[in-house]
Fold these 4 entries.
Entry 1:
Amino acid sequence: MKRFHVHAHVQDLSASIAFYSKLFGAEPARVEADYAKWMLDDPRLNFAISTRGGKPGVDHLGFQADTEDELAQLKARARAADLQMADEGETSCCYVRSEKHWVTDPQGIAWEQFHTLADIPVFSEKAAPAASTATACCAPRGKPAGVPVQAASGCC
């Protein structure tokens, strides 16, 4: 069963953790100095926040697949709909290693589709970008769909 995913940028991580913990009636499953994530079962939601990136607000949406087969089904749907895809394959970001690809809707909203493989102790195992260009996630911002995502971004 897939889980809906939302990643948002926040200005004040502590205040946002307090707010969302009350809103969801649950504490985050993971908290880091720049990041927090809730893995809710009702509704099935992977909700992540971070202080990495641009102005506060929604960074991207997505679906987290529980299995490799579910991820393959999501990829097949994207291809059947003639959606251009940025296929990252196995990558690391947002404190996990995952297999993922991206599609972008007609309005430019990035949709991440991924299967988590393992937790990792760092935000990303890629070289860290300069502070002025750091983004929260690997969403292909400002790029046409289907263009590979560069290592200068990182994700969930």
Note: The chain is about 15% helix and 40% strand.
Entry 2:
Amino acid sequence: MQIKIINKSAHALPHYETIASAGMDLRANIEESIILKPLERTIVPTGLFLELPIGIEAQVRPRSGLAIKKGVTVLNAPGTVDADYRGEVGVILVNLSSEEFTIENGERIAQLVIAKHERTEWLEVETLSKTDRGEGGFGSTGVK
């Protein structure tokens, strides 16, 4: 699948690091470093603009290394870039650590996963079919 992209950053286009990678790293496109204090959040621009086909979304997800090593993650994970959005892809980062984190230009801040999605029409009914699980919620399928 080919997707139209405008790259207004000084960085290479996002790309897959390995043949089995699901995501591509997004890089910060900033003129000055951003200091993210503990529990602070900000939108980090990427300089990327996408034209996604209808039925495709771009999911902005955290980078596991940044999360475990620095406590920094994508706040609305996964963030969704819709097919009709033409603005710059931004990443909402939050610092969940107890130390300041400095975001530098070109730093890998998130990953982008391209995914198909479905649309639905609701069929309103009075009852739903029965299952063994029934209304068992969070943690109800684990071993007892």
Note: DSSP finds one helix and ten strands in the chain.
Entry 3:
Amino acid sequence: MNEFLSWLLDAVQSVEPVVRTLLAGVAMMLETSILVGLVVPGDTIVIVSATAVESFGEGVVLVVAVVVGSLIGESIGFWLGRWLGPRIRFSRLGARIGEQNWARAERYLGRRGGPAIFLSRFLPVLHSLVPLTVGMSGFAYRRFMAWTVPACTLWAVVYVSVAAAAAGTYRELSQRLHFAGYLFVGLIVVFLVLIYLVKRVIVAREARHMHDDHPDDDGTHSARGMED
């Protein structure tokens, strides 16, 4: 395990820091601007990039790149929603996303307002649809930014910190402990499981509230639709 993991981490680290950071920022921009996040989660991109962080300064730069990329992507998503929202929603791509997901994003925003924007950064599917939905809703851009900036910042700091700390701990222990690789994988898995459980709790609560607001809907179906 140690040999394979060391090879993998070294491969990521062999990429020039500037290139890694730019790739992470661009990937986050694409995640919400053109719905790439529905296919390739930003979590994966940031975690892989963060494993190559060797100093506090590199970590700060990566966090800044991820936050800036996220904000540019969400801004593009917002303005696409403002200018082309209905066309996107009723296009072939919008149909593949599913009308039920668009409707849930609308209900979520309508019921929660600003907090929905903040929480959506941490939720599957909704984090890609909410910027478009907010743009279509007439929500003010400045108010949108006021909620999404702290959400993107918190998200980036947590993911970069955990992945960088786990990789750094592994590098320190790999020469002394033959099971250091398992510790690294275990830390990442525990972190992802905790994030998954938190998302499940939020999704379940929102689905329950949406079901209460719309009793004709199937609450179980709604929760599943928001998770997929």
Note: Residues 217-228 have pLDDT under 50 and may be disordered.
Entry 4:
Amino acid sequence: MTVAPMVLAMLLGAQAAPLPEGLPRAQIVTEYGPITIELDHRRAPVSACNFMRYASTGLYTGGRFFRSVQGPIHVVQAETVHGSDDPGLGPIRLERTSETGMSHVAGAVSMARNGPDTATSSFFVVTHDSPALDFGGTRNPDGQGFAVFGRVIYGLTLFHVMQARPVADERIQPPVSMVSVTMLDPVPAVCT
């Protein structure tokens, strides 16, 4: 069976079309193994670029996953060696899920915060869908939600293992070390 020349030209043209630029990835190596996350600097540039600045300068290396919440939200939270309230590079603007179109589904990576525009270095991974963390959700009295800026593309099961560890007052006992956090791809120009 032969392919008509016009169909063949269309197929070849489709193959030759440039692929859209992928999103940058970071690798978090823990004592349980590696985790790869994809950072969406297109939809959440403030939060994604913030994470990339911390990763690129080594400020997450030596940190830990210290907190686990299982109901009504399901998250594992990370902190730098200076703690979850590390002022680090300063607070960033809250990118609400109503603005980005992203949501707190299983695998989402989001910035921790106390109030709007207070997030600094601490981030968390959602282990099961947690819509209460989205804009209009009930997790915070202000209803502003949290800023999703990426997703786990490899290693989500490691967060389930972390949540199986003993917990006291939402604190993982003992916390899980982040041996290293590095960028696998170049940091986009918008973040520099």
Note: Residues 22-191 form a domain with the Cyclophilin fold (CATH 2.40.100.10).
